[in-house]
């Protein structure tokens, strides 16, 4: 039986997050499966994975809710209560084997993952010792990538949480319109959540540019403080997948994200 461990992740760069999410996916093949913990999760996390060089680290560790959690610290000056600590550059195979040892000493997930490179994993299963051929596992579905554009950090965190609940864990963030445009012109996004008031340009002009950008964004979702009925209609005619208030209704947004 697979043991599932919810991991609260604090800090880390986009590249490291990409590698870490791949680690979570690959762990589904082992005896211990890891999943990112989100605020809306029905149960508490069992493991705290902290980037000690991030500004959030000290704030998070001071929270009483973290008492008793297994703690893995990345970076210098690890706290005394850390179960494990590692220095950069990160060696994900070593980290995962250590995580396994915390929760199931007999289990181990063995693979190579370079945090600075794209993952290339051969999932083919070798013939068994009895001479019969085993079927290779079903291929993992491709990652779907999201873009969040908002100057409001709290809103970005809220939208990232809603994305994660829809299994969309690969998300980039932009704080201005020009940043968002630059990102969509160099990276394919399956969905983009754009704050109409994001700094750096007129809202409708920005949305038009995003809609016409190549690679194309399949689902373009907009948020705005108190959108009018006319604005919703205009957004629909311009091909927007949804037009929500500043904090989208969780059920309605979740239903839309399930279509991504």
Describe this structure in words.
By secondary structure, this protein is α/β, with parallel strands linked by helices. It has two domains: 3-103, 3-Layer(aba) Sandwich (Rossmann fold); 145-257, Response regulator (Rossmann fold). Helices cover 32% and strands 19% of the residues. The protein has eight helices and ten strands. The protein has a five-stranded parallel β-sheet. A five-stranded parallel β-sheet has the order 7-6-8-9-10, with helices on both faces. It is elongated and about 55 Å long. The model is unreliable at 106-134 and 136-140 (pLDDT under 50).
Produce the secondary structure layout.
Elements: E1 3-10, H1 14-27, E2 32-36, E3 47-51, H2 56-61, E4 70-74, E5 84-86, H3 92-103, E6 145-149, H4 153-165, E7 170-174, H5 177-186, E8 191-195, H6 203-212, E9 219-223, H7 229-237, E10 242-244, H8 250-257
Parallel strand pairs: 1-2, 1-3, 3-4, 4-5, 6-7, 6-8, 8-9, 9-10
Short description:
The protein has helices at 14-27, 56-61, 92-103, 153-165, 177-186, 203-212, 229-237, 250-257, and strands spanning 3-10, 32-36, 47-51, 70-74, 84-86, 145-149, 170-174, 191-195, 219-223, 242-244. The protein has 260 residues and is α/β, with parallel strands linked by helices. The strands form 2 sheets. Strands 2-1-3-4-5 form a 5-stranded parallel β-sheet. The protein has a 5-stranded parallel β-sheet with strand order 7-6-8-9-10, sandwiched between helices.
């Amino acid at each position: 039986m697979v043991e599932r461990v919810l991991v609260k992740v604090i800090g880390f760069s986009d590249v490291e997050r990409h590698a870490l999410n791949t680690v979570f996916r690959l762990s589904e093949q082992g005896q211990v499966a890891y999943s990112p913990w989100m605020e809306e999760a029905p149960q508490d996390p069992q493991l705290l994975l902290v980037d000690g060089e991030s500004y959030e680290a000290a704030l998070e560790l001071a929270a009483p809710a973290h008492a008793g959690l297994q703690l893995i610290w990345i970076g210098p000056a690890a706290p005394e209560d850390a179960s494990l600590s590692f220095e950069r550059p990160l060696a994900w195979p070593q980290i995962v084997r250590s995580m396994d040892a915390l929760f199931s000493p007999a289990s181990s997930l063995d693979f190579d993952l370079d945090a600075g490179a794209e993952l290339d994993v051969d999932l083919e299963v070798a013939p068994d010792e009895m001479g019969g051929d085993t079927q290779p596992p079903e291929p993992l579905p491709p990652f779907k990538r999201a873009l969040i554009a908002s100057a409001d950090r709290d809103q970005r965190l809220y939208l990232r949480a809603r994305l994660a609940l829809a299994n969309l864990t690969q998300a980039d963030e932009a704080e201005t319109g020009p940043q968002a445009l630059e990102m969509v012109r160099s990276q394919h996004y399956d969905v983009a959540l754009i704050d109409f008031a994001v700094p750096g340009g007129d809202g409708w002009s920005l949305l038009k540019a995003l809609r016409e950008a190549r690679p194309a964004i399949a689902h373009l979702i907009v948020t705005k403080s108190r959108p009018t009925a006319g604005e919703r209609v205009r957004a629909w005619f311009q091909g927007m997948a949804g037009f929500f208030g500043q904090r989208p209704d969780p059920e309605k947004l979740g239903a839309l994200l399930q279509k991504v």
